[in-house]
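User: Hey, quick favor. My workstation is busy. Could you predict this chain's structure for me?
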Amino acid sequence: MLVTVAASLALTVSCLAASLPSAEVVLRLPARMHPSRATQFPDYIARNLGPYSPYAAAGAYPALPNNCTIVQANILQRHGARFPTSGAGARILASVKKLQTATSFGSSLSFVPEYTYDLGSDDLNALGAEESSAAGHLAASRYASLAMDPCVVPFVRTDSSQRVVDSAGNWTAGFITNTSVVAPSAALILDGTTGSNDTLENNNCPNSASSSAIETKWLNHFAPNITARINADAPGANVSNADTLNFMQLCGFDTEYAQDLSPWCGIFQPAEWSAFEYYYDLDKWAGNGYGNALGPSQGVGYVNELLSRVTGDISHAKNDQTQVNHTLDSSDATFPLGRTLYADFSHDNQITSILAAMGLKKNGSALTASGPPQNQTWVTSQIVPFAGHLVTEVLQCGEQAFVRFLINDQLQPAEFCGDGSGLCLVDDFVASQSYATNNGNGDYLKCGYVPE
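Assistant: No problem, here it is.
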């Protein structure tokens, strides 16, 4: 099978076959722009903002093993930096207004009376546009050999959320700054509304447990001393631990919008940010990852699509009974096999589910509300920061085909299908994904959603 896999990936797709048009080359800049400067975060904040961390590589991209060439790359990328969601923004604004009712303010809070909350909601900010464009430029450089044939066009898909659609467009605009590569297809937009079959969104598991209980326990463990300090500097405000969490979020969002360090960051001590990070480690681990019995099941559909792309065998996607859109995946125009470069754009929660379904970043011990375990591998800021990505590369090494997995450039050991070196034979990778090929072992049926 291994030689067959390599041969199928080298197969030329007819230039006359039905295909999506080439992408337009327009950078999707957000309506609420701010003068662009390098984001002025100290690392102790920037690397501890959980899913709100600006993109940073988690490791150095590894050189290819001797006698190996890349024959396919599958990029799964989160959208770039955004404003708070509408719900989160309303909570943050309420906390700011509460703090502004104080009768006086200590020196660290002297900016509060005059502070005006002016963040947008849901959409990308300027940093987010830049992150996705930079990622596209890097992909074109790294995988240029996979995007030279005008008959084998890079294939792009995106969830329908506007910030994700815009991120796909920004990535494409960055990609074609390399004038030697073929322009990707126009992004195929998957309908991500609740009830739709979309492997890039996780809206269809209403029975999935909430992570709020374990998060609240940890918040009430680490935040009281911070909250007490804020209240001492703002008598009469009576802020809560939840307000403290909102102010820490605002430090990140405000800085990423202004691209200058927000005064909200000065309220907190450097050592307190690791506790904030762990709050969001728990959020993703218990919300969509290994700590949620139904979390991995929501990533099954994408894994089955990935297996089809890697092997050239449509049966993996065809046999999926979870989130695969079979209308789209039955057409070569909307789910082509034999391409050498694929790019999919999604959300942090869905990528978390996909990683858990595959078996990546599986922590040695459970994350608990008592504090981080030793040798913790599930660190949200290193896994799904803004513009974070998983790349599954297919390598041809002599007569054998392998896969390797990189999360934000960090090579994953992938013990579930190999010897821990990061390389897995394609056959072994397919065999290791029985959770996906068995449709989540019935877990997805417990979600309370029946796919069409």
